[in-house]
Amino acid sequence: MENIEAIISASLNEVHESRVRDSMLYSLTAGGKRIRPLLLFEVLKGYGKDESIGIPFARAIEMIHTYSLIHDDLPAMDNDDLRRGRPTNHIQFDEATAILAGDGLLTEAFHQISESREPADRVLRCVGILSEMAGPSGMIYGQCLDINESDQDTFEEIRRVHLYKTGCLLSAPLMMGAVLSGQGEEIVNAWHEVGNRIGLAFQIQDDILDVTATAEELGKSNSDSRNHKVTSVSLLGEEKARAMMKELYDESCIRIAGFRGFEASSLISMIRGIEARFR
Ligand code: GRG
After folding, report:
1. Closest Cα to residue 47, out of 242, 203, 187?
2. What proportions of the chain, in percent to the nearest 5, are helix, strand and coil?
3. CB of 232 closer than 6 A to ligand 1?
4. CATH number of the domain that residue 256 is part of
5. How far is CA 30 from the centre of its chain?
6. Using the 8-state DSSP alphabet, how is residue 52 labeled?
7. Predicted pLDDT at 215
8. 96-124: b or e for each residue (b if 16 or more CB lie within 10 Å)?
9. 166 lines ligand 1 (CB under 6 A)
């Protein structure tokens, strides 16, 4: 299989040339960490499947993630001007084009999945998972809670925002990897539980980095600190937040090691790598 950058940057080869395609490609190839597609490939590998069957799904998840970042940076949302070390999409292009680029990435994601030649019942289940995890009962629900600050006075409320806004899009590739490997619903749900823990840990870590790293190191604006947003760090303090993050990553690795028929070592080292990330 080609490397992840080649896979992602070829995603739009069949799309009509236009300003919106340029804008989609600008954000898609801006050097994200590719955590979500890599998680999908790791699950397939752990179950002994040919990773290349995951390519359309890996592209789809990275497209949806990229669209969410483009829209999150818009003036009507976080109004940020730096993302993945570059000007945000609406700064580089314009607001209308950035909105279209996000819409285009979301729609094209499902077109990519339609190109899969895996068994139709598995492909359909993946469409269900991805649309639920990204949609109004998933990431969009989390974003809706996030922009209503009255919903965020306690850690329980913040935890709910994290679970939906961040956890759902990290659970989706784990769950789709399990479906494409022929696992049943019980195991798919167990992967969802793992994704919830990784998602919470990942967002707590993001909150810690928001106060401990510079925008230059992060490649994005420290907008939460700047906007005095309630975060896990502002509610728990850095030390408690760090302890909780570690516990959640540890728990995820223990659960992964317990999956029957799954060779866990490579995914566990990936998760330990995420735990050690600086951006
Ligand atoms: C506006 C539709 C819409 C959704 C917004 C995902 C999201 C919901 C907003 C993005 C901002 C944010 C802080 C999301 C939490 C998840 C997170 C930490 C995203 C950054 O993911 P990384 O670190 O990014 O994987 P890269 O750039 O490496 O791909």
Report:
1. 187
2. 70, 0, 25
3. no
4. 1.10.600.10
5. 15
6. G
7. 74
8. ebbbbbbebbbebbeebbeebebeeebbe
9. yes
Is 138 near ligand 1, meaning CB less than 6 Å away?
no
Q: Which structural domain, as residue segments, surrounds residue 231?
A: 4-275
pLDDT at 224: 67
68 lines ligand 1 (CB under 6 A): yes
pLDDT lower than 50: segments of the chain:
none
Q: Are strands 82-83 and 86-87 parallel, antiparallel or unpaired?
A: antiparallel
Cα–Cα distance, 227 to 133 (Å, whole number): 27
pLDDT value of residue 39: 98
Q: Residue 104, SS3? A: helix
CB atoms within 10 A of CB 227: 12
Residue 226: what pLDDT? 59
DSSP state at residue 54:
G
Q: How far is the CA of 70 from the centre of ligand 1 (A)?
A: 9
How many domains, the chain?
Answer: 1
86, β-bridge pairs:
83
Which amino acid does the sequence have at 66?
T
Amino acid letter for position 129: I
Q: Which residue has its alpha carbon closest to ligand 1 atom 16?
A: 166
Closest Cα to residue 76, out of 88, 85, 61, 84?
88
- The beta strand positions in the chain, using DSSP E, are 82-83, 86-87
Q: Which one-letter DSSP state was computed for residue 164?
A: I
pLDDT digits (tens, 9 = 90+) for 187-237: 999 999 999 999 999 999 999 998 987 777 777 776 666 567 788 999 999
Who's near 224: CB < 8 A, 6+ residues apart?
A: 207, 210, 231
| Spacing, Cα 120 to ligand 1 middle (Å) | 30
